[in-house]
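note to self: the first set is below, dont mix up w the second
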Amino acid sequence: MIHFDKVTYSYDDKKQASFSIKEASFTCSKEGVVGLIGPNGSGKTTIAKLILGLLRPKSGVITIDKRFDTYSGDLWKQVAFVIQNPDNQIFGSTVGEDIAMPLENLGVPRAEMTKRVSAAADAVGLHSRLEDPVHTLSGGEKQLLAIASAIVMKPSWIVFDEPTSFLDPWARENFWKAILKVQAEKGIGLLVISQLSEDFFYFDHLLAFDNGVLVFDGTPAGFRKNLDKMPWFTPPQSWIFEDLMAGGPQ
C-alpha cells in the first residue's frame, strides 16, 4: 500500500511551479492497477519522484506498505522504477547481463543470481533471449527487459513513467499482458503514469492531477461520469462512439 497524507512539495525554481503538489492525500492498493493521469505539468512525475524518495515532501507523510517511508535507506528494496524510454535504462550487453546487473552491484551470490535472473526473464517471456545482445531486441522487447530488470530486485511496487508511449499497438498489448502476469504471480503493486487513453482500460484505480491538485480519486467508471470537469482529458474513441450512439454524454 502507498499512502500519501496531506503531502505538499514545491520547487524553488519558479519555472517548475506548475509541477508542485498541494496537500495530496490518497491510498493505493496492490489490488489491480493504479493509473496516474493528468495534463502536462500537472505533477505526475513529481508524485513518482516522491514515491521513489528522489524528492522529500515539504510537509505531509508518505508510507509504503505501512512500514517504509520514502526517506528510509530500504526504499530501493520496495519500489522499482521503469522509465519511458527503455534504451535509457539498459546497461548490459546481453539480456541476461542487463537483468543481472543490479544483483551484481549488490554482491548477490552467483547461484542465487542465476536463479533470480532466469525467473525474471521467464516472467516476461524473455527466457529464450538471455544470451542475445540487447541491440537485437525490438522496442517492445526492450520494455519487457526493463520490467525484468525491475522484478529481479523483488520489489513491493513498480512505478512506470509513460511506459507505452513509444510502443506500437501490438507491443503495447504485450506490455500489459506481461505486467498483469507479473502482478498476478508475484503480488507486485503497479502504478502507471500514462497519457494514452488506450491504457485507460487496464486501470482499476485512477488518480488524476491537475496543476498539482488531486482532482479525482476513484474508479475509471466514476471518472467517466466527471469528464465535464476534466477538459484536458481525451476520451477513448470507444467512449465517444458510445456517447454518439446513446445520443450524447451520459
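second set (the one i keep forgetting abt)
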Amino acid sequence: MAAAPPAKVAVVGAGLAGAACSSQLAVQGTSVSLFDMGGRGPGGRTSTRRQSGYQFDHGCQYIQPAQDNRLQDLFKHWQDQGALAEWKGSFGIVDQSNRKYRKEEERALLVGKPSMDSLVQHLAAQQGIQQHWAFKVQRLEQLKDGQWLVHGLQRHPGDDPDDPRTEGPFNAVLLADILTCQGGVGSVDLGLDAAEKLLHPVGKASNKAPCFSLMAALHVGSQEAGIAAASVTGCDSLQWIACDTSKP
C-alpha cells in the first residue's frame, strides 16, 4: 500500500512564531507553505534593517531564556545550530530624572546570530518549507471537503502590477500574525464561519500599541557608554536603548 501523502499546511506570517511553527511542522514531515507580505523576506517583529554598512535590530531586541523545559531544549537546539547566541554585556537601568545608570545583576539574554532576522531566516529555510515572500494574503476559502484555498496578491518591486494568486488546497491554515485578525493592512478575510469562531475571541484578547525605533550610528572613535543595553525609567518617550555592536 502506498504511503499517504504528507499533510499540507499554510502558515500566514513569517515572524518568529510563524517560522518556528513552520520549522517544527516540516521536521515532522508536513509540507508547509509559508506566506509573508514583506518584500524583504521573513522577520516580522524580529526584523533587522541594514543601511550604509550598518545593522540595526529595530524590532524585537532579544529572547528571554525559557523556564519551560520544552522551550529550553528548542533554544539549545537553535544555539547548537549557530542561529541563536547568548548576548553578554553590561545591562542596567537609566533613571531619566537624575541621569544615573544602575547596573543590574548579570543575566543571559538570547539573540539571533548575527542578527535577529537571521534566526527567522534559518528556521524558514528548513527543508519542506515553500517560501512565499511579498505575498499579501487577502482571503481564505474553505472547500466542501474541509480543505482551504489561500487567495492573495503576489507583489512585485517598483511599479509592476500585483498578480492575483491562489495557492492550495491545504489541509489546514495557521494564522501566525495577530494583524490578520485585527483589521488594517494585514487583515485577512476568513469567511463568515471562520470569522465567527476566530475573530471575536482573538480581537478581545489583544490590544495594539505603537512603538517607534530610532536607529543611530556613531562615528568610529566616538566615546562609548560601555553598556550593552539599558531600560529607561522616568521618561515618557524613551524606554530602551541598546548597542547593536555589543551583540555576538
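remember for set 2: Residues 48 and 89 are 20 Å apart (CA to CA).
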